[in-house]
Recover the amino acids of this structure.
């Protein structure tokens, strides 16, 4: 298969985006000073959902259940999330934030909102909608190719 210039350019632009967002250093980075970026993503998704099953959380973060379970276990150990057994179906466990986790969640959301507000303001106004549309098209294409 011969790569076209636009395919090479897409790959390079995504690599640059990953570097700018720190994806490559994710294992070394921390969020709020004491949790990993993976735990940070999980904490945010739990906070946004208020209650979520382990399987739904794993699907949302595109991780397998065992990896998600280890991540949640670390958050439970740090008293940031808790597991609750559903009273109507004892086999079903939901994950929700503790009071401490709630504080971390709001701090993370505030910090990222501030950061992306600055990024958004840096994009020329005439191009802001185009950037959002293009990112959605890219996400849709990535999703189709993961199935």
């Amino acid at each position: 298969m011969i790569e076209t210039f636009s395919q090479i350019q897409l790959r390079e632009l995504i690599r640059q985006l990953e570097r700018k967002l720190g994806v490559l250093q994710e294992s070394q980075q921390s969020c709020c000073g004491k949790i990993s970026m993976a735990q940070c993503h999980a904490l945010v998704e739990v906070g946004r959902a208020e209650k979520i099953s382990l399987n739904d959380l794993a699907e949302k973060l595109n991780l397998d259940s065992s990896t998600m379970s280890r991540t949640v276990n670390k958050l439970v150990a740090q008293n940031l999330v808790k597991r609750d057994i559903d009273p109507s179906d004892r086999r079903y466990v939901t994950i929700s934030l503790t009071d401490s986790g709630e504080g971390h969640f709001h701090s993370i959301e505030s910090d990222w909102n501030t950061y992306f507000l600055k990024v958004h303001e840096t994009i020329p106004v005439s191009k802001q909608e185009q950037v959002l549309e293009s990112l959605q098209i890219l996400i849709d294409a990535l999703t189709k190719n993961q199935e």
In short: The helical segments are 5-21, 37-49, 54-60, 65-77, 99-122, 128-144. The chain has one domain: 30-144. The chain is about 60% helix and 15% strand.
